[in-house]
Each structure stands twice: as C-alpha cells, then as structure tokens.
Design brief:
By secondary structure, this protein is α/β, with parallel strands linked by helices. It has 12 helices and 8 strands.
C-alpha cells in the first residue's frame, strides 16, 4: 500500500442510515444506488489508500438540509471535508453559509439546478450572485454541476462568473461534458458520444481554458459512461490533461450516486491516469484537489 499513490476523493455522496435523525427531503429522487454512510466511506478509503475526501451533500435526497454532511465530517476533520449546497435564489442562503463556516470548516459551496428549464438564474441571478459573493468573502471554492440540456447555455454563463471572481477556484463536476450524469432529468434521451479524437471536448468547453480559476472533476460516473461506449479512459484522460493541464483536473468516485463497490471505482480512476507521467498523476489524483480543498484539513 505504501507504494500506491494517495488519492483525494473529491466527490463522495454520503447518507445517514438514520432517516429519523436525518430525514429525506419532500422532493427526494431515488436513484436506486445503495446509500453510503460516512462510516462505510471511511472504511473504504482506508482500504484503498484514499487519504482525504469531500463529503458532498446528497442534493436529490436531502435537498439543502446539510445536517448530515456537516455532522458526519466534524469528528473526522483529518479525512473528510463537507461540501454544502444551498438555494441560490433564497435571500437567507448567504447568512446560512456564514453561520455554517463560523461553526466548522467547510470545504466548498456547490450549486445545482433540478429544473430542466432553459434558465441560468439558479447560478447567476442577482440574488444568486450574492451567494457567490459570500463564498468569495469566506474564501470558499465553488463546485457546480451542469445537466445535459443546460450545458450549451451554462458553459458561456460560467465564463462571466469566473471573470467576476478571478481568485475563486470554480470546479465543474463531472467535467461539463455530455456524459451520462448530465442526462439525469432526461433519462430517455440518447447521447451520441463522439469519442476520439475530440472526446466531446467542445469549443465551448475549450473556451474555459483561459480562465485559470476553472477546474474540472473527473468522476466514476464519467468513467462508466466511457466504458459503456468502449472508449479508452486512459486516452481520454491524456487528452483532457493535454487540453487543460493536470493542475486543473481532479478525481472523485461519485460513490452514493455511482454504484460501488468503492474499490472498483478507485481502480478505474487509477487506470484512467495510466498515460500520465508521475507528476501529472500526482496532481490529478491528489495535489490539485488538496490545493483547492486542503485548507480545511488542519
């Protein structure tokens, strides 16, 4: 195990086994994937040489009640950092975020939109921008997920936000590429994946290269989609690093959303960096994420 490169898992969805203490949201969406508790995650991390992880709020289960990721991370500050989610257009969200950060270290704020409407207000309406401003004031990175139909108009919108907050690390979950997770709200929509040589790295995605504060998160669900289309994941990651640089790429299992076992996802992530050199592997597997989220581990 000592010779295996450590991993920072930036995308672990945890859920409590106690639905009374941590009740689900009224708008819960069941994915059919077995839940992963914090205790199970920590055991799997130890077995797989995953030294740190982001405990990402399970938005489709708890919505914006971040109680479990906060409570579960608190006793394990050397291993877990919570990534919380709030409603951008709720005027109370900035104060809620400030209060969270006063009580414990928070790894990041995350934005998502459950609507399939062609709308960017959830990420850039005036009220939402006040929440971005609060995150910047608190020194928090921001993670954001784009679903399939949102990608064409959300990628240009994120450029404007990146210009507004040039010192803030912004992390695009699941790469912002038209992969399976992006079709969550359109499950019957077929995605024709182009494969090599472009690998769905579109001109709109390439336009993000000039914004050095934008980073990309490669996850287990991305790899599953690539495998399903017989795409060599190592060649894909080599192209991704060529486009954006290893210092802007990180990995996450997506456990709790992507079906385990955890070790299988980790093995897939390790295989995906096979064509990178040692320095690039270290950045993608650990140090990029540690630079962005690691300040909470102290």
């Amino acid at each position: 195990m000592a010779n295996i490169e450590p991993i920072f898992d930036t995308h672990a969805h945890i859920m409590s086994a106690d639905s009374v203490a941590y009740p689900p949201s009224a708008v819960v969406k069941h994915t059919g994937v077995p839940p992963c508790t914090a205790e199970e995650l920590l055991e799997d991390m130890a077995a797989c040489n995953v030294t740190r992880a982001c405990a990402v709020q399970r938005f489709h289960y708890y919505y914006v009640d971040n109680s479990y990721v906060l409570d579960a991370s608190r006793p394990h500050r050397d291993r877990l950092t919570p990534v919380v989610m709030l409603a951008g257009q709720d005027p109370q969200s900035p104060d809620i975020l400030r209060d969270m950060v006063k009580r414990q270290a928070v790894g990041a704020l995350r934005f998502a939109n459950t609507s399939d409407n062609i709308d960017t207000g959830w990420m850039n309406a005036p009220q939402t921008l006040r929440l971005w401003e609060t995150a910047a004031e608190l020194g928090l990175p921001v993670a954001i997920i784009f679903y399939l139909r949102q990608i064409p108009y959300n990628l240009p919108a994120i450029l404007i936000i990146a210009d507004m907050f040039p010192e803030m690390p912004i992390v695009i979950d699941h790469l912002g590429i038209e992969h399976a997770p992006m079709a969550f709200f359109t499950p019957n929509e077929r995605i024709t994946y182009p494969g090599p040589p472009d690998y769905a790295i579109t001109p709109a995605l390439k336009a993000l290269r000039a914004h050095r504060n934008i980073h990309f998160k490669l996850t287990g669900i991305n790899l599953e989609f690539l495998d399903a289309h017989a795409i060599d994941t190592a060649k894909f990651v080599r192209r991704l690093v060529n486009e954006f640089g290893a210092e802007r790429i990180m990995v996450g299992t997506d456990i709790g959303q992507t079906k385990g076992p955890y070790s299988r996802i980790i093995e897939g992530l390790r295989r995906s960096v096979a064509l990178l050199d040692a320095d690039e592997r270290a950045k993608v597997l650990f140090s990029t994420a540690n630079r962005i989220f690691g300040r909470t581990f102290s």
